[in-house]
Amino acid sequence: MTGAPLRVGVLGAGTVGREVVGAFLDGDRAARLAPADGRPLRLAGVAVRDVDRARSAGLPDALLTDAPAHLVASPDVDVIVEVMGGLEPARTLLLGALSGGKAVVTANKALLATHGPELEAAARGSGAPLRFEASVGGGIPVLSPLAADLAANRVTSLRGILNGTTNAILTAMAREGTAYADALAEAQAMGYAEADPTADVEGHDAAAKLVILLRLAFGAWVDPTAIPRRPAVRDSASLGAPGITGVTAEDVAAATDHGRVLKLVASGRRREDGSLEAGVLPTAVFGATALGSTDGVQNRIEIEAEPVGSVAFAGPGAGGGATSSAVLGDLVAIARGGASTWAGLPAAVGRWDGGVSAPAGPALAAPSGACYPLAE
Ligand SMILES: NC(=O)c1ccc[n+]([C@@H]2O[C@H](COP(=O)([O-])OP(=O)(O)OC[C@H]3O[C@@H](n4cnc5c(N)ncnc54)[C@H](OP(=O)(O)O)[C@@H]3O)[C@@H](O)[C@H]2O)c1
Questions:
Q1: Ligand 1: which atom is nearest the Cα of residue 13?
Q2: Closest C-alpha to 279, from 233, 235, 239, 226
Q3: What is the pLDDT, as a whole number, of residue 29?
Q4: What is the 3-state secondary structure of 237-258?
Q5: Are 16 and 83 in contact (CB under 8 A)?
Q6: What is the rounded distance in angstroms from the CA atom of residue 117 to the CA atom of residue 222?
Q7: What backbone torsions phi and psi does residue 316 show, to the nearest 5 degrees?
């Protein structure tokens, strides 16, 4: 352990933030936040909307503020952890931190997918590291391995189950023969799905995560709204319902008849001509494969690259504890002098303007009329 402590300001103390703060306040876990070859990490402040509520939840009064901008501007804070979510004020706060030379760790996939080019430009401009391992796959280490450990490879394709809520719903539909609306209500009752489930069930959350994976795999920030999320429909020029919202119990049964399960698969591929193929679509996957047997709230990401071949990353894709593991890992990396998550990859500071086409190929013609791509 060398040097003065690195002082950490945490923005947000909800599901993830509470666990991040808890690690600093628990002696055993705090000892892991002092790398042998880096600076020790110290908690300097926590910004929340409701200070009274945070105080009653046991957070020390001396650390609390309801003014995140003060924490970002404070000369007593070196690193900002953003776990508040949403686009604003998170965007303005992180741009302020990065342009002021402060390292940033964020779990906010919606923010990165929407404002990635701007945030990357700010980080590259000041040289401050921006790390975001927790934004994809929750606790699964996948972004740093993709950007750093696989840096000598040419990524040819990737695919994965990136959203635990939709996977839990589809798993329940397959196991119990439940209708979509009932499986969604059950997921909401169990706390897997939000009261407003739109971001999950319509595929926006998975599309945001796919944008981040595509940035690291193919060097381009794709507009998340350009990611196809609606399956083709038989005998119709228009597309089906977004995400898993059009999947029926009969569709799930038809997949089972073919030895397959329906999964919301996010996929991306760079074609030989340089164009991008990507999508977040209900996909008929062989049940006997590792992807097909990824059930409940688990996530799995598979990457094909040359010369390594196929590599896969699996584990808990959400939850406060699991996600805090990735946030804290990023903090330790910064304490050890680590750079941004994209490490030594070439800069990608503009938006990809080459268009994105949906994955093409054979499909399962389902009873609802939707045509779900068949996964190999
Ligand atoms: N939950 C997961 O499993 C998970 C997994 C991976 C990534 N993430 C990402 O991590 C981030 C946080 O998620 P979460 O589930 O922890 O959210 P959450 O439970 O809703 O917590 C958000 C926290 O931020 C605070 N906050 C929000 N806006 C604020 C503002 N303007 N000023 C001050 N404080 C503010 C909230 O304060 P109040 O409570 O006072 O409103 C709350 O403490 C999101 O970007 C999410 O996408 C979450």
A1: 43
A2: 226
A3: 92
A4: CCECCCCCCCCCHHHHHHHHHC
A5: yes
A6: 9
A7: -75, 120
> What is the C-alpha to C-alpha distance for residues 189 and 172, in angstroms, rounded to an integer?
13
Contact 138, 326 (CB under 8 A): yes
Q: What is the CA(46)–ligand 1 centre distance, in A? A: 12
DSSP conformational letter for 61: G
Judge residue 224's burial from the number of C-beta atoms within 10 Å of its C-beta, 0-12 exposed, 13-18 middle, 19 or more buried.
buried
Name which of 324, 313, 358, 360 is nearest 216 in CA terms.
313
- Residue 1's pLDDT band, with cuts at 50, 70 and 90, is low
Q: Distance, CA 18 to ligand 1 centroid (Å)?
A: 9
- Ligand 1, residue 17: give the atom nearest the CA: 16
Integer angstrom CA distances of residue 294 from 160, 261, 262: 10, 10, 11
Q: Identify the residues whose C-beta falls under 6 Å from ligand 1.
A: 12-17, 47-50, 53, 68, 83-85, 89, 107-109, 134, 138, 318-319, 323
Strand partners, 267: 159, 279
Which residues neighbour 68 within 8 Å (Cβ) at sequence distance 6 or greater? 11, 47, 84, 89, 93
Tell me which of 10, 11, 48 to substitute to probe ligand 1's pocket, judged by most ligand atoms within 8 Å of the beta carbon: 48
> How many angstroms separate the Cα of 299 from the Cα of each of 160, 184, 238?
7, 18, 30
DSSP label at residue 115: H
Residues with catalytic annotation?
209
pLDDT at 69: 98
**For 351, which DSSP code?**
B
pTM: 0.98
Cα-to-centroid distance, 366 and ligand 1 (Å): 38
C-beta separation of 306 from 153 below 8 A: yes
Phi, psi of 218 (to 5 degrees): -125, 5
Ligand 1 centroid from CA 122, angstroms: 23
State which ligand 1 atom lies nearest to the alpha carbon of 12: 24
pLDDT one-digit tens code per residue, 197-240? 999 999 999 999 999 999 999 999 999 999 999 999 998 899 99
How many CA atoms, within 13 angstroms, populate the side-chain half-sphere of residue 122?
22
